[in-house]
Amino acid sequence: MQHSRRITIRELLEAQQEAAQLTLVAGEAGLDRYIDHPRMQKPSLAFAGFIEHLSDYRLQVIGETELNYLATRTPEEQRAAVDAVFDLRFAGVVITRGATPPDIILQAAERTETPLMVSQLSSSVFMTDVMLFLSHRLAPTTYQHGVYMDIFGLGVLITGASGIGKSEIGLELISRGHRLIADDMVEFSRQSQQVVVGRSPDSLRYHMEIRGLGILNIRDLYGAAAITDTKRLGLVIELVPWDHVAPEDRVLGEHSETAILDVKIPRVPVPIRSGRSLAVLVEVATRNQLLKQRGIHSGEAFVQSLQARIEKNQ
To answer: In angstroms, rounded to a whole number, what is the distance separating the alpha carbons of residues 291 and 298?
Structure first.
């Protein structure tokens, strides 16, 4: 299930007060208003009367240009423009470069309970830094069952039915030098149009459940080199019963994709059968995917070579 995310102005202040050099100067009553989009707006045209496209769920940034423009208007025009903007009841407003907010802006913020903050940073620096922070905090998120590993530098999600042996394979991979990211429940977020990053929920981090052994702390057992916190997802390996794989796929392999947060991820089914070294197969599938990223497709090359031999002998 995909989750929409939001952050309150109170949380933003707590997380970015020092880095963004933020100070709350008015509108404390509205600190629980929230932002649901990382991109910010500058209400330049709004102070000229065009307010149609301002979003009340985005952070508004007022810089020198907006303040200088307001100063060119009469006191009555200034008040009318500021009141029209603040009556939209934004999530929050930031004045940059440490400028002292005019009294009409302070009064409008208090009247509408709109958090008004001052940053010592320039508008461009403030918007770049805070947008990066918000992009991570507000990224679309979903949760998947499975074991998430860093194998040869590639983020690999191992999925399959409950009890099929995902955690045991993960434990064997750890003993072979690979790194655990998450077991049982994996949190994925989309960082850009084609990038999905996975991590463990805080309550489960560094732990694995192995039937018969209980809950294991992998960092304590194997050391810090056996765990990592996050990785871009590059491959999904699905453990399936042997009889569920078609004969032709056992020879040529099944080429398919699965969508996570609307991003297509390569998927490889690995048939389960007694006597197979599944950890080795997962390693080989990962190496093969890394080769594909370099443009080397072993199966396709084999088929093309075989087809050429057939045509030559006809």
So the answer is: 8
Contacts of 289 (CB under 8 A, 6+ apart): 154, 234, 235, 266, 268
Contact 115, 35 (CB under 8 A): no
* Cα–Cα distance, 221 to 112 (Å, whole number): 55
Which of 158-162, 272-276, 283-287 has the weakest average pLDDT? 272-276
Give catalytic residues, as residue numbers.
Answer: 145, 166, 184, 250
Query: Please, what are the domains in the chain?
Result: 2-137 (3.40.1390.20), 141-298 (3.40.50.300)
Please name the helix (run of DSSP H) or strand (run of DSSP E) that holds residue 220, with its range, or none: helix 218-222
The candidate with the shortest Cα–Cα distance to 279, out of 31, 199, 287, is 287
- What type of residue is 276? R
**What's this model's pTM, rounded to 2 decimal places?**
0.71
